[in-house]
Design a protein that fits this description.
about 425 residues; alpha/beta; Rossmann fold; seven-stranded mixed β-sheet; four-stranded parallel β-sheet; 13 helices; about 20% strand
């Protein structure tokens, strides 16, 4: 298989402004490198109007990076831009050191963070897909003749063999993930049948989602001041007093999140798309709040979750001096809550806002079921959605109550045709 050399943790960061100045992007890239465990020994910055085809960063900057690597003895160069396979190979040949672009760096962080079986499979699949287009550089020391029968060199033969092994392994991972996905779908279907609403935490990485998750549920999930501290989704039941919900902590988003990562983690992110409510956790103390909100909105659009109801949660108010409060629109609906997951300020307000979101949208309907629909009747009773029941000669009249979407799921959409008015006089 493709062998990678043991890499020195000392690295040189290369981060250019391409087409415009973005100081926050440089800071974020440095945080990504630190999250991966890199020891930063040098930095190269600059500006370009457009990327250069051969090296992306330009021949002059490439020589500057080469000189800095030789001076510092760094074993790795991290580039804060997506590189094509040829650009990556050209830079490695010139610098004589391993080069990793932004996508490869994020994949490495994900590989460190993955703990669950599904998470490890997803990371490995994403890594193999990324590696498949870059496999040729591993055999640059071997002859790769091109031509007809008898003219193939040992490098090309080995390369083809590795590509076949990669394709076979990716196929195996895809089949395993499909099985895990079906199991996840079964768990989601059970939650839907039990009529317990699902609330998913989403937001920019390091916005404090896991800390907020622990503050709400007392789960003790891993939380740290670093990017992508949480990768695997964690679900816990949240008691809101008059009702329960399932709260799910998900992976954080980042600007320019590689498309292959979104594709690889689509099954995990499906929990976000299927949620009844999204809590968009925002770092209130960050100067780039608007850009981070836009980045989260973009990823939600990619996974078809843009239409899921959303409640903004401005976290870390202990760093801003803000008071914990609730913001409402002109109709009185809560749209944002200010909290501090670290100190606990505003957590009770958030609990109330979640409860009001669901209970404020409850509806009451009278539904008629025939004797042959006993299974649906039992499901509604098990979900606690039945408030009253009246039998008649052909079946039952049930007064059901709950969120409209949940009732529609329990009744197969029949709630839309149910009558909000009690059965006419004469029924038992």
């Amino acid at each position: 298989m493709f062998e990678r050399p043991v890499v020195d943790p000392r690295c040189v960061l290369v981060s250019l402004d391409v087409g415009g100045v973005d100081a926050a992007a440089h800071v974020e890239f440095e945080e990504l490198a630190k999250s991966a465990g890199a020891e930063i020994v040098g930095r190269v910055s600059g500006r370009r109007a457009i990327p250069e085809p051969k090296y992306f960063i330009g021949a002059g900057k490439a020589q500057e990076v080469r000189t800095l690597v030789q001076q510092t003895g760094a074993g790795l160069v991290l580039v804060n831009h997506p590189l094509s396979p040829s650009q990556e190979r050209n830079l490695e040949a010139l610098i004589e050191s391993r080069v990793l672009d932004r996508t490869g760096l994020i994949l490495d962080i994900f590989a460190q963070r993955a703990q669950s079986f599904e998470g490890k499979l997803q990371v490995e699949l994403a890594q193999l897909r990324h590696l498949a287009t870059r496999l040729v550089r591993g055999w640059s020391h071997l002859e790769r003749q091109k031509g007809g029968i008898g003219l193939r060199g040992p490098g090309e033969t080995q390369l083809e063999s590795d590509r076949r092994l990669l394709r076979a392994r990716m196929g195996q991972l895809e089949r395993r993930l499909a099985r895990v996905g079906r199991q996840r779908d079964q768990g989601r279907a059970l939650r839907q049948r039990s009529a317990v609403p699902t609330v998913a935490l989403v937001g920019y990485t390091n916005a404090g989602k896991s800390t907020l998750f622990n503050a709400l549920t007392g789960a003790g999930a891993y939380a740290a001041d670093q990017l992508f501290a949480t990768l695997d989704p964690t679900a816990r039941r949240l008691d809101l007093g008059t009702m329960d919900v399932v709260l799910i902590d998900t992976v954080g988003f980042v600007r320019d999140l590689p498309h292959e990562l979104v594709a690889a983690f689509r099954a995990t992110l499906e929990e976000t798309r299927q949620a009844d409510l999204l809590l968009h956790v925002i770092d209130a103390a960050d100067e780039e709040t608007e850009l981070q909100i836009a980045a989260v909105d973009e990823v939600l659009e990619q996974i078809d979750a843009a239409d899921v109801p959303r409640l903004q949660v401005f976290n870390k108010i202990d760093l801003t001096g803000w008071a914990a409060d609730v913001q409402r629109d002109h109709g009185g609906t809560c749209v944002a809550v200010r909290v501090s997951a670290r100190t606990g300020a505003g957590i009770d307000l958030l609990r109330d806002a979640i409860r009001q979101h669901f209970q404020g949208h409850d509806i009451s309907r009278w539904l008629h079921l025939r004797h042959g629909e006993g299974r649906m009747r039992a499901r509604l009773h098990a979900a606690g959605a039945v408030r009253a029941e009246r039998p008649d000669e052909s079946g039952w009249w049930l007064e059901i109550e709950g969120p409209a979407a949940r009732l529609a799921s329990l009744t197969g959409g029949r709630v839309d045709d149910a009558d909000p008015v009690a059965p006419a006089a004469g029924h038992p």
